[in-house]
Amino acid sequence: MAAPVVVSTSVSVCSNYGYHRRPSLSALSYYSNSISNANLKLSSQCFSNLLRSNSKAPIYCRKFVARTSIGENESESESEKDLGLVGEDSAAFELGKQKISSWIYFTAILGVVLCVLNVAWIDNSTGYGKAFIDAVSTLSDSHEVVMLILILIFAGVHSGLASFRNTGEKLIGERPFRVIFAGISLPLAVSTVVYFINHRYDGLQLWLLQDAPGLHQLLWLSNFISFFFLYPSTFNLLEVAAVDKPKLHLWETGIIRITRHPQMVGQVIWCLAHTIWIGNSVAVAASIGLIAHHLFGVWNGDRRLAIRYGEDFELVKSRTSVVPFAAILDGRQKLPKDFYKEFIRLPYLTVTALTLGAYFAHPLMQTASFNLHW
């Protein structure tokens, strides 16, 4: 026996009647008949569409809502609730839809980028990285000031290009703009990271807590967690390398349910962990600069998403929060029962592997940075 299919419709009808004038009986009768006819037409149209294609999910919108339920009349299934999302499902990755050729292109592009970066910037005999660091270092004898200047330069270029993204992509296209964006931002990021590694123990020692019992384990765990917040926008590596067309995504699931700006939260956690461990003025200066940059990114990111997505972003904004867990605690964010499944996905597993790899590669990173003499 075929399972029953329940179709429900809701129609929003607005009236221009004012409070100073009561509608006549004929007007009430007219609008009542109109509403009845509209409901009948919409119900018929919706049921007809469902019969034509049972492979397509019902369409959710603000004025007209169509729901199907097989074997249940009142309660919605989890998949039905997901249909109410206006943003994208973050970290969704279907292995069957991946093209081997795309990942071959990605590997080739990554190799070319790293070679160019090494020759043009990192290698002291051919690149301009050391000259850049030396030029900035002439501005002050203070490592703290130089650290802040490097972060300011990177932040200005990175956020400036991000703000120019809509216009830039219209002028030259998504892929060329991504190449320019990465080509300028990446060398500046490398310079800032290398300078921090080389000078992280310079400056004034403010506290020394490295011998405190359990502190290393606590800060290690905090740093590990920070990377799950830091990289929610790079789940599709093919977009990062411009193999796929880059997009400004409006994510709404996974980590976004906890905070709308996970990169800011992750950066704050990372900075606090490293600053507590190192405990000197250079670490404090680096943390102030990085946190300030990401706090600006909260405002700038919301502004850019509002321009691109309009009402959809406002809806996502209304049920998410900048402060972690705030929207969940005050009831604006309703977590599905299987919320944990949004994290059991390949991109999150990849982040886990890369984070552990970066931790064990710390000695190699420190040696490589020291050999540059920046």
UniProtKB/TrEMBL annotation:
Is the Kinase keyword given for this protein? no
GO BP: carotene biosynthetic process
Which key words are in the record?
Isomerase, Membrane, Transmembrane, Transmembrane helix
Q: How does it sit in the membrane?
A: Multi-pass membrane protein
Recall the GO molecular function terms of this protein's record. Answer: 9,15,9'-tri-cis-zeta-carotene isomerase activity
Which Pfam families does the protein's record reference?
A: NnrU
Enumerate the transmembrane spans: 103-122, 145-164, 176-197, 217-238, 343-362
Question: PANTHER family, from UniProt?
Answer: 15-CIS-ZETA-CAROTENE ISOMERASE, CHLOROPLASTIC (PTHR35988)
Its recorded name reads 15-cis-zeta-carotene isomerase, chloroplastic
